[in-house]
Amino acid sequence: MSDEHSRADLVAKLLHPKSIAIVGASNDPVKLSGRPVDYLRRFGYTGRILPINRGRETVQGLPAYPSLADAPAEIDLAMVMLPAAEVAECLRDCQRHGVSVAIVAAAGFAEASAKGAELQAELQAVVRETGVRVLGPNCLGAISVAERAVPTFTSALDEDMRLRSGPIGFVSQSGAFGSFIFSAAQRTGIGFTHYLNTGNEADLSVAEVLDALLDTADTKVLLAYLEGVTDGRRLLEVARRANELDKPILAVKVGSSAAGARAAQSHTASLAGADTVFDGAARQFGIVRLSGMDPLLDAARLFAAGRRARGNRLSTLSLSGGAGVLMADAAAAHGIDVPVWDEQWQQAMAEVIPPFGSARNPIDLTATLISDPPMLRRSLRIAVTHPDTDLIAVLLGNADRGAEQLVDAIEEAYQATDRPFVVVWTGGNGRPAELLAERGIPCYSDPGRAAAALGALVEYGRRPPVSTPCRPTDVDSAAARAVVASARAAGQRVLDEYTASQLIAAYGIPRAEYRVVAGPDAAVAAAAELAGPVAVKLRSSKVPHKSDIGGVRLGLTTAAEVWAAAEQVLRAEPSGELLVQRMAEPGTELILGIQRDPAFGPVVLAGFGGVLAELLADSKVAVAPIDARTATDLLCSLRGAALFDGVRGGQPVDLDAVADALARLSWLAHDLADDLVSLDVNPLVVGAGGAIAVDCLAELG
Ligand SMILES: CC(=O)SCCNC(=O)CCNC(=O)[C@H](O)C(C)(C)COP(=O)(O)OP(=O)(O)OC[C@H]1O[C@@H](n2cnc3c(N)ncnc32)[C@H](O)[C@@H]1OP(=O)(O)O
């Protein structure tokens, strides 16, 4: 089945099923296997419910059937509520009876034991053999709000919950925690189109479900809760499509700490991918990453309003000067400016607020607002027409008695502008927040949380366009492959500096000029040829980290120095050869690298520090290949990026040269993905007139 066709099938059968069979439906609505039927009935599912139970003629008052074969109607979706050992056979049954999508609830698969892993492998074999698509196993099911389709046993539906519809589609790897998030969101006024839990992802992954959700017209914002990414490249393709459709993906990815990654691994039986790689991939492909449940839902509330930030200039109008200051501080921490209004606009604002207020921005309406609620309307009418405002925040609190009037004024202003607009209402009886939620206006109780949500919206607005990079025409991949082939023939897995540098040279990355020689006399002759200060280094496949044994001597200017250095280096490892290398001009030292990530494949890294790179921990990652513009974005996102402009009167460095080298390295990573496990250019020395690799090391898989 083509991608598009299989997506269409998932949209029709998983997201909008017209009939659902519950296989192993219990008569007892309290049992897990009894809940889906109970929920489908209670929430008023608009399609047909077909309980399958081999021992009963009715289940919870509905006609039941002993097997799928006996069901009297076409079945769009099967919810399999059988123990793990019975699932594979049930899926074969699904295929025999034309059911193409199933949800498998049972636990006891790869997350549980070696025996469970075997069952999961068998399930995957059945998926391949039958083409039946599976959500799960070890999953809580799905909720489609419009149809009230709730093939799930989640406790989120236990109490008397009113399913609230809205523009958000949510996919979670975690079943229980995803349900907590869903329930918390619903209760604070955030509405959904769909919520799905992917569990062990034996077949359908978060990426594939997000992809299907993109094709549902009512879903405008996607939320993802991830523990480990299994098919990173697929996720990025989905992110690319989401970008084209302007449907933002907001993601929480847990497992950033070592302990968190361990827990994620045992929880969903998937590896938590390296966190920095996910971070880089998310930035590169416009996925907005949030740090936890509250930030995710705060951002979701704002994104659901459907407005986009065209800039980062915030105007705040506050009843409390203190709240205004707190908002300004939090805004700054999230990359948002609170610029002082120009004179003319300050004067206009000053005419409608008390003389002891402030019209500068943050605008302080003062506590006079309590006795003069119309002031809010007057001041907001000015704020929504202020041309240099990209974002608006109104900060209020308590004032339960006059709340309706204030909310009306806010609504008038909200409707008068298409700019992102938030309300922070702190304290009080909670009624204003409800009124605002009913009118679709994002409301928060804490300025800091509102600022973080605005920051996420600004970040999304600034995302670079996702590009399709072109391979530079002058790279010589055949030469690079030949280097790898001869290293393999010589039994080398770790490529020494000289050999590794041949790989980067084949991709057009400048490297310091080398001579390979056998002894001190030849080293002196080579140094004379290279003219200028040289380095003498050990070349030995036995010693990848040559400086550890004194195998690197730098800045040698006289023949005597070169001779002595060569002699000492060879004494440390007599079986080695010598590299004589022209010294690079002093400059800023960077590290560039290639890594192979289990989820995202080949990635490149750039950071400050050269040999101090690990200490400084200032590096970023991108998924290969990239073009020079993406490389430039990555370099400019480093904490120390100001160093590129030159420090203490120094000249700016040649950033274009570094970006070009990084983009070329990304093509090497991409083209030799099957061979290269890692490659470090460390350092790449960059000055005003270019960048040059002076050391290099690579490892083959
Ligand atoms: C928490 C997270 O993060 S995600 C969620 C992960 N999943 C879980 O935690 C689920 C854990 N539980 C399981 O895996 C269980 O095996 C379940 C839920 C799949 C099934 O468990 P049970 O409820 O014990 O099923 P049970 O064996 O009682 O069968 C249910 C009904 O189907 C009937 N039935 C059983 N097998 C079949 C069959 N092959 N065909 C038709 N009917 C059947 C039974 O007779 C029973 O009917 P009854 O209760 O009306 O008498």
From TrEMBL:
Matching entries from PROSITE patterns are given as: ATP_GRASP (PS50975)
Establish whether keyword Ribonucleoprotein is in the entry: no
Record's keyword terms, sorted: ATP-binding, Nucleotide-binding
Among InterPro entries, the record links this protein to: ATP-grasp (IPR011761), ATP_grasp_subdomain_1 (IPR013815), CoA-bd (IPR003781), Ligase_CoA_dom (IPR043938), NAD(P)-bd_dom_sf (IPR036291), Succ_CoA_lig_flav_dom (IPR032875), Succinyl-CoA_synth-like (IPR016102)
The answer on whether this UniProt entry bears the keyword Nucleotide-binding reads yes
User: What GO molecular functions are on record for this protein?
Assistant: acetate-CoA ligase (ADP-forming) activity; ATP binding; metal ion binding
Q: Where is the ATP-grasp domain?
A: 501-537
Q: Which SMART domains match?
A: CoA_binding
Q: Which PANTHER family does the record cross-reference, listed alphabetically?
A: BLL6376 PROTEIN, COA BINDING DOMAIN CONTAINING PROTEIN
What is the name of this protein? Acyl-CoA synthetase (NDP forming)
Q: Which organism is it from?
A: Tamaricihabitans halophyticus
Q: Mind giving the lineage of the organism this protein is from?
A: Bacteria, Bacillati, Actinomycetota, Actinomycetes, Pseudonocardiales
